[in-house]
């Protein structure tokens, strides 16, 4: 979703012989909140997938494409593996699990600052079933002392599932180039799947909805973000570099609607202002954003709404 912080390919691929090209698919997997979306944005060098400190932020796979001379890597950010309580969450976990079998390589993230927990071990079991080739990333090393790292590397190594273990910080970028090199050397020979200027295949309407939802996730607490979806009603490009966007924030209960609106409309205003700013960066135009809040009880079990928010049911 724009904010490009790194350049893509520095040389053109046009003069490379097709049989020297490597291209592969790499899933970023793990339990919720370990930093998968932060890492895909870091690896691709653009903001493609939304991030928040609320678990279960990512709801469907988001592809990000890395271009280097002679190499294309299609990273797939996936929803965090968790215990589903609604149809939406069942679908999120199903999509994340299915991807494991469809890629050339799985990169599993663990929050190294928290250590290995039952949620991570459950993901390891899924890898065994998928019979995938795997790497392990120990993320968030910026939050911990280096002495705690060695025992953790030993512990994950004992699982016997990983070709390589890479400690890094997706947030600061520390050691991310090492991960990129480890992935690059494992990509199979083959022609590129996507054109050189394409960073994601996420449709623009969905990207807009995600950037608004990111603000709901960043600014509300407890059950409110989980109970919220964003539907785009209208995107209209005006002639004076202004884009008009109408969106509805759907939530489960009246009490959540009251929180989303806030006292004197304060929460709605904060979400709207922050979302408008990030949409302006993404679209490269001024944005007029109109937001509504609607209650749709039980929407997380309603397949027609789940389809509307991008889950392929
Ligand atoms: N300190 C630190 N924080 C990080 C790092 N990577 C991610 N985070 C933070 O961890 C939180 C979760 O990050 P996300 O990238 O949304 O995690 P995720 O795995 O995609 O989460 P889900 O989509 O919910 O499964 C955010 O607050 C990030 O800023 C890191 O390397 N260091
Ligand atoms: Mg995510």
Topology:
Layout: E1 22-29, H1 36-44, E2 62-68, E3 71-77, H2 87-102, E4 105-111, H3 118-130, E5 134-139, H4 149-157, E6 165-167, H5 176-184, H6 204-219, H7 223-226, E7 228-237, E8 242-251, H8 254-261, H9 266-283, E9 286-295, H10 303-308
Parallel strand pairs: 1-3, 1-4, 4-5, 5-6, 8-9
Antiparallel strand pairs: 2-3, 7-8
Helix pairs in contact: 6-9
Magnesium ion binds at residues 36-37, 49, 57-58, 77.
How is this structure best described in words?
- It is a single chain.
- This protein is an alpha/beta fold and 313 residues long.
- The protein has helices at residues 36-44, 87-102, 118-130, 149-157, 176-184, 204-219, 223-226, 254-261, 266-283, 303-308, and strands at residues 22-29, 62-68, 71-77, 105-111, 134-139, 165-167, 228-237, 242-251, 286-295.
- A 6-stranded mixed sheet has the order 2-3-1-4-5-6, sandwiched between helices.
- Bound molecules: guanosine-5'-triphosphate and magnesium ion (MG).
- Magnesium ion binds next to helix 1.
Sum this structure up briefly:
This protein has 313 residues and is of the alpha/beta class.
What tags apply to this protein structure?
single chain, 313 residues, alpha/beta, Rossmann fold, GMP Synthetase, Chain A, domain 3, 2 domains, six-stranded mixed beta sheet, three-stranded mixed beta sheet, binds guanosine-5'-triphosphate, binds magnesium ion
């Amino acid at each position: 979703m724009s904010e490009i912080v790194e350049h893509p390919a520095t040389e053109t691929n046009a003069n490379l012989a097709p049989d020297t090209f490597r291209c592969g698919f790499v899933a970023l997997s793990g339990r919720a909140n370990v930093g998968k979306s932060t890492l895909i944005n870091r690896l691709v060098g653009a903001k493609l997938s939304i991030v928040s400190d609320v678990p279960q932020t990512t709801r469907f796979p988001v592809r990000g494409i890395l271009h280097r001379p002679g190499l294309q890597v299609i990273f797939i950010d996936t929803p965090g593996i968790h215990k589903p309580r609604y149809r939406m969450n069942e679908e999120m976990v199903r999509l994340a699990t299915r991807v494991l079998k469809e890629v050339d390589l799985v990169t599993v993230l663990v929050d190294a600052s928290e250590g290995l927990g039952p949620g991570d071990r459950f993901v390891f079991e899924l890898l065994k079933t998928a019979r995938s080739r795997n790497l392990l990333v120990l993320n968030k090393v910026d939050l911990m002392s280096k002495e705690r790292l060695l025992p953790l590397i030993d512990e994950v190594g004992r699982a016997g599932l990983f070709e390589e273990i890479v400690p890094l910080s997706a947030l600061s970028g520390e050691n991310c180039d090492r991960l990129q090199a480890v992935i690059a050397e494992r990509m199979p020979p083959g022609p590129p799947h996507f054109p050189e200027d394409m960073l994601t295949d996420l449709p623009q309407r969905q990207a807009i909805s995600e950037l608004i939802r990111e603000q709901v996730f960043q600014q509300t607490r407890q059950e409110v973000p989980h109970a919220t979806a964003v539907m785009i009603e209208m995107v209209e490009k005006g002639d004076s570099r202004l884009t008009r966007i109408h969106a509805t924030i759907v939530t489960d209960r009246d009490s959540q609607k009251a929180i989303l609106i806030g006292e004197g409309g304060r929460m709605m205003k904060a979400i709207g202002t922050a979302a408008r700013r990030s949409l302006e960066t993404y679209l490269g135009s001024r944005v007029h954003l109109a937001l509504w809040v609607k209650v749709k009880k039980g929407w997380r079990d309603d397949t027609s709404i789940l389809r509307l928010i991008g889950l392929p049911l």
